[in-house]
TrEMBL record:
GO terms for biological process: ammonium homeostasis. Its main location: membrane. Pfam families: Ammonium_transp. It comes from Oesophagostomum dentatum. The lineage of its organism: Eukaryota, Metazoa, Ecdysozoa, Nematoda, Chromadorea. This is Ammonium transporter. The keyword Transmembrane applies. Coiled coil: none annotated. It is found in: Membrane. The chain crosses the membrane at residues 12-29, 49-67, 74-96, 116-136.
């Protein structure tokens, strides 16, 4: 018979993580100077970064969300888990990246602003790409644990690729797309089950392909605008 924790483990783990995130943000985070009432009146950062953030945010929540609906029996779960992982990773990514910053090492605080939200969206993209290789294989609790582990690993790899090896990673093709894909393949291999091969639900139908195409159109337009703004 399942224990009370096993029955409610998803709610418990998610609630505890959110409480921890709120404490960490409250103790160590500060608003960007442009967000403060008496801060800088320079509107250029907001005018340039916020449109990019909007486009990327739509790409994360709608583009990736609907793209994952191609499986005929996993549409609602795909969109729901996509939103869950996006929200969780954006929070966790800002905390991890902030605590690894020079600003935090010198001041004991890290900044939260539009730029940090934008980079957190890209951290979420890594997790969602990995999710694409794990559709239908994990429970929501396991997805959360996967995101909790993968987020700091991806940020660590990104730092060394860009700052140690000085790689000019155009479009984040290596630190986002390739890393997320290979991490997902590794997880998929670890959770592989021969009984799931050629399963009757492992396929698409006409309507699921239509929704997936809608997601891809959002992804394409979001990437195009982000690169040229």
């Amino acid at each position: 018979m399942a224990s009370a924790f096993q029955k409610h483990q998803f709610t418990i783990i998610l609630a505890i993580s959110q409480v921890i995130f709120m404490i960490l943000f409250g103790l160590f985070a500060k608003y960007d100077v442009n967000a403060m009432p008496n801060g800088s009146e320079d509107s250029v950062p907001m005018a340039t970064l916020y449109p990019m953030f909007q486009d990327t945010h739509v790409m994360i929540f709608i583009g990736f969300g609907f793209l994952m609906t191609f499986l005929k029996r996993y549409g609602f779960s795909a969109i729901s888990v996509n939103m869950l992982l996006s929200c969780f990773t954006i929070e966790w990514g800002m905390i991890v990246r902030g605590m690894l910053s020079h600003e935090f090492a010198e001041e004991g605080k890290f900044t939260i602003g539009v730029e940090q939200l934008l980079t957190a969206d890209f951290a979420a993209a890594v997790i969602l790409i990995t999710m694409g290789a794990m559709l239908g294989k994990l429970s929501p609790t396991q997805y959360i644990i996967m995101a909790f582990i993968e987020t700091p690993v991806s940020i660590f790899v990104e730092h060394h690729v860009i700052h140690t090896f000085h790689v000019n990673d155009i479009g984040d093709s290596m630190v986002v797309h390739a890393f997320g894909a290979y991490f997902g393949l590794a997880c998929s291999k670890a959770f592989a089950d021969k009984r799931q091969r050629e399963h009757e639900n492992e396929g698409s139908i006409y309507h699921s392909d239509i929704y997936a195409m809608i997601g891809e159109l959002y992804n394409f337009s979001g990437k195009t605008v982000t690169f040229f703004v």
